[in-house]
Design goal:
Elements lengths: L1 H28 L4 H7 L2
Length: 42
């Protein structure tokens, strides 16, 4: 039971850490490349 709890906590931390990192990178980098991304979308 303890191993199951450890694994669940580990997965939770890994998933939320990655999501926060991705959100931060997107917030910082998307504006920089907005014009290029807009052109690619046309």
């Amino acid at each position: 039971m303890q191993d199951v709890a450890r694994q669940a906590v580990r997965e939770y931390v890994e998933n939320h850490s990655r999501a926060e990192l991705l959100d931060r990178v997107l917030d910082e980098e998307l504006p920089r490349y907005a014009e290029a991304l807009e052109r690619l979308g046309q």
